[in-house]
């Protein structure tokens, strides 16, 4: 707890009046000293007590998209005595910080506070703190208390609706999607999350009940129908340029999965090569975690794993990377910025 400037002024004034009262033996001066001393004591006590003894629980969505406005609820409770004039600062990683004022919190009466905030940056964020601050009844002191209120939230990269994958590889990618739609394999391959356009007759009800979302059976012929999104995660430009590429990849992934295809995302990461094959949710989770580094690009690490005739959408700010991939016999769609996708 700290006194502010006003508290120091009041304390000095109280000391001077105490000296005058002692010398003059004036009752009214003693009364004024007692009043000022009472203000200091009440301010210090209420400021010190208000932030303490408050329990908090946070409720928020676990998966959101960059730029979304979401509702966050704080469940507050206290015991023994009321807390007054408390300011709450909620800090959730990846979200815009918010401050709220509570005039009074009564013991035994839980209170819910809901506020709107914005998802600022993609990623898998863990942690979160709530700071309780108070200036007490008279505003002469300030006290604060920091409470860990753990939160886990995944913020997907923002994406834009697009009409098609940009040329020159549009025809090849369109053929991949058409092949996915026309296949009717009979040999079971695996189960996966339901995607737009899946036949509901393929729903695997046991897995659906266990996971709480639609899961479908995938057959061997279906498994070959993914379009590869290859991301160059080398440090070649600014952070904003890399985020631009991530949003471009998210826009393409969303377009492809909504069209009925699956996407395979490959990118080099410090812990190894990220290689994810699935629907929109799988792609969004993968893109949310990507970071830049100084490692070799994924197309040199996993080149042998890519079928020569498989259509590839390459996201890179390095124009020479396109030649490195196309020389291996892959039909390549080159995306250098978000504008390439939106304009395409």
Explain this structure.
By secondary structure, this protein is α/β, with parallel strands linked by helices. It folds into four domains: 48 residues; 103 residues, Immunoglobulin-like, CATH 2.60.40; 133 residues, Rossmann fold, CATH 3.40.50; 29 residues, no CATH class. 32% of the residues lie in helices and 33% in strands. The protein has nine helices and 16 strands. The strands form four sheets. Strands 1, 3, 5, 6, 8 and 9 form a six-stranded mixed sheet that branches. The protein has a five-stranded mixed sheet with strand order 14-13-12-15-16, with helices on both faces. Helix 1 packs antiparallel against helix 2 and helix 5 packs antiparallel against helix 6. The protein is elongated, with a radius of gyration of 30 Å. 33% of the residues are buried. About 5% of the residues have low confidence.
List the keywords.
single chain; 344 residues; alpha/beta; Rossmann fold; 4 domains; elongated
């Amino acid at each position: 707890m700290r006194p502010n400037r006003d508290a120091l002024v009041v304390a000095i004034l109280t000391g001077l009046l105490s000296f005058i009262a002692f010398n003059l033996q004036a009752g009214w001066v003693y009364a004024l000293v007692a009043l000022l001393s009472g203000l200091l004591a009440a301010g210090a006590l209420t400021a010190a007590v208000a932030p303490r003894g408050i329990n908090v629980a946070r409720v928020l969505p676990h998966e959101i998209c960059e730029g979304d406005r979401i509702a966050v609820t704080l469940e507050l409770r206290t015991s023994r005595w009321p807390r007054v004039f408390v300011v709450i600062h909620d800090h959730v990683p990846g979200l815009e910080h918010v401050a709220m004022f509570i005039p009074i919190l009564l013991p035994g009466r839980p209170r819910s506070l809901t506020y709107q905030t914005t998802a600022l940056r993609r990623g898998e964020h863990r942690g979160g703190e709530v700071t309780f601050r108070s200036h007490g009844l008279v505003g002469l002191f300030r006290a604060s208390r920091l409470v860990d209120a753990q939160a886990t939230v995944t913020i997907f990269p923002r994406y834009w609706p697009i009409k098609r994958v940009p040329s020159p590889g549009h025809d090849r990618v369109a053929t991949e999607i058409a092949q996915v739609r026309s296949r009717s394999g009979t040999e079971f391959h695996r189960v996966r999350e339901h995607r737009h356009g899946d036949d509901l007759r393929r729903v695997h009800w046991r897995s659906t009940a266990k996971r709480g979302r639609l899961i479908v059976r995938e057959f061997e012929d279906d498994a070959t129908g993914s379009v590869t999104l290859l991301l160059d995660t080398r440090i070649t430009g600014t952070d904003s340029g890399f985020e631009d590429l991530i949003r471009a990849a998210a826009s393409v992934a969303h377009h492809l999965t909504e069209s009925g295809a699956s996407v395979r995302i490959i990118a080099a990461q410090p812990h190894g090569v990220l290689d994810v094959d699935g629907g929109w949710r799988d792609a969004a989770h993968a893109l949310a975690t990507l970071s830049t580094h100084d490692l070799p690009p994924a197309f040199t690490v996993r080149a042998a794993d890519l079928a020569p005739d498989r259509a590839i959408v390459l996201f890179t700010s390095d124009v020479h990377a396109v030649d490195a991939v196309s020389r291996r016999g892959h039909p390549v769609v080159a995306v250098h910025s978000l504008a390439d996708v939106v304009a395409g």
